[in-house]
Amino acid sequence: MRKLITIGMNTIQGFASPAFNFLIVVFGIKTFGKTDWALLINVMIWVFLITFLLGWGNRDYLLRKYSQEPGQMYHAFFSNFLSRSLLLPLTLSLYLFFPTSIAFWAILLVILTFSYASLSTLVVYHQRFRAQLIAEITAFGIIFGSIFYVDFFVLDNFLKIYTIATLAKLIILSVQLNFWKEPFTAKISIQEFKSGLPFFILGLSGWLISKADIYVVDFYLEKAQLAEYQLLITSFLMLQALAAYITIPFTKHMYRVSPLVVQKIKYRLYVIAIPLTVLGAFFIWIMMEYFMQLGFSYIYYILGALIALPCYFYTLNIMELLKTHKEQAIIYISLFGFLVNISLILLVIKSHGILGVLGSVCISQWVVLIAYKWHWKCTQSLS
């Protein structure tokens, strides 16, 4: 029962963040219009990109390190955090793309998000999902409430609001974790980058296949279409991400349990995959067409559901490969999926717009699923 509560709390917490972001985008567009809100989306996608780069694969690297050397957990945490902080000057590149005021607040937002994201490994290891949920709810309340309080959309003001919200959740989670009370030992070392590099490349390959589409849409399509695509793809990525959130509580145990136990977990995930995806797609359709009135046909939502479904069938294959130190296989498969995805998008985006992008993402996701299952079958036949 306790394990089920932990899984449920992690799923709620993990789903809360993208759900909150989705609601903010929905009501932001509803209140201020697609074109104005797309200006904020344009800044935020670059904030998220730089934050991802600063992460340098720390999450998977540190979780493995904690599992192998639990007594050195806080030394590993502080050493990794301080070493990665050396990359913070990268944020200054935002001054090249945005006006001074916008760049300043974007940089501050990156620094706070970087610090908050760094705590995620401690949350997972200590199973403190409730504490993170409280932090996420607080940040959501600040941003969501501001949408109805502010009379006019001003990009600078909303970046300030996001900065305040991120600072609030950083403070709340830090207080809950009490990590500063632990003995402080740290070593700033280039070794942290060397050790984290395989995980960073791994994460980068995954990021390319899951996020590259939004940057292509930002470049090729109108701002209003960017907002529409952000709404649609975010909703289905939330549905896709449920697979990962359901399995996160097992992450630290995956390196210890037998293949038979992993197989049982796989079957349970497979059982819920289709009904969960169908139900989720139905609610997304209601939200997008009856509340946001996007005017998209059924094919958009069918493609969205088909984008979300494969992840439920290959998430645990990824964890198995991580367990056996076969990160290269994940990288090759992800890069192959990215090449398929980006090639198709560039071929159809001008002629078919958002529908063409969704179709390309859908095809690439099923290609990735087939690749993982083919690799798993080959591995089983050789063992």
From TrEMBL:
Key word Transmembrane helix present: yes
UniProt keyword list: Membrane, Transmembrane, Transmembrane helix
Coiled-coil segments: none
Lineage top rank: taxon: Bacteria
Keyword Membrane recorded: yes
Transmembrane segments annotated in the record for this chain: 12-31, 37-56, 77-98, 104-125, 137-155, 161-180, 192-209, 229-248, 269-292, 298-317, 329-348, 354-372
Protein's recorded name: Lipopolysaccharide biosynthesis protein
Origin species: Algibacter miyuki
